[in-house]
Amino acid sequence: MSVLLPTTRWTDACGELATQLRDSDELLICHDDEDDPVTEREEHPEGIRFIAAGEPEGCSGKANAIAAGMEAARHDRLVWTDDDFHHPSDWLATFSADYETHGPVSEVPYFVGRDPLSMLLEPLYASACSLPLTLGNQIWGGAVMFERADIDESAFLDELRRTVSDDGLLMEHLQVTNVGRTRIVPIGGTIHEAVERPVRWTQILRWHFPGAIAGTFLLSLLVLAGAVLAPIYAAAGLTVLHLAVNEVLGVRRWTAVLAFPAVFMFVPLVLYGLVRRTFVWSGRRYRWHGKFDVTVIE
């Protein structure tokens, strides 16, 4: 199999995945250019190849890296993953066994905040992002395995080089079984990052799943109205609801008690995400005019 890991720096995930490769497997570190810090490492485990994707034009940096990695990969079975969460020693072997049983498979992220705003929004990320992926058999680009024959690869790569969201697009080309294993993914670190993330996610829903963003916004308004009119009942209900969501996801976090105040931030952030003209992702600013109309501003 070929494991695609978009990253510009060497993280723990690089070493974790390298130790899990079988003799015929390969790990493709998909980065931007030869000046990236990840290429400065003098020694690295066998089975690793560095793929310089170049600067993105008309798509996100991650979409560009994934496209370059798929074109360079030597095998038909592909794994997409991210560099920001822990991959236990049996991760690849378990994932492969899942594929043999179910066909294309994916896992679930649980986003844990590293700054006050991201921490406040944890319950809503769990209920609005992680839970639907689990219950709806949807794809998380940080952990998905499929084979080239499972998609129309030529059409997919053409579209991937003209859009922002790798997994949002893959959902339109591939049906998976979400095996429900949850991976803890730290996010944020600064308030700026915490604000930019929901902008990007809102625009992904806007262009790929417009019905979902409309429903999410309407439901959020109704919940917000209930929180204003009956705050005690709303606080109790939302806390219990998010404790239940965490149980389904197999995660126990005290931040479930923040569900009530988070509602008052969520609606303005969704609205802000819909009207915002640009957003920043991994150091680049993008203007997303349409699903396949993207400008890299800087």
UniProtKB/TrEMBL annotation:
Broad class of the protein's primary localization: membrane
SUPFAM superfamilies on file: Nucleotide-diphospho-sugar transferases (SSF53448)
GO biological process annotation, one example: glucosylceramide biosynthetic process
Residues forming coiled coils: none
Transmembrane segments: 207-234, 254-275
Keyword annotations of the record: Glycosyltransferase, Membrane, Transferase, Transmembrane, Transmembrane helix
Any one annotated GO CC term: membrane
Record InterPro entries: Ceramide_glucosylTrfase (IPR025993), Nucleotide-diphossugar_trans (IPR029044)
Record-given protein name: Glycosyltransferase family 2 protein
Top-level taxonomy: Archaea, Methanobacteriati, Methanobacteriota, Stenosarchaea group, Halobacteria
GO MF annotation: an example: ceramide glucosyltransferase activity
Subcellular location: Membrane
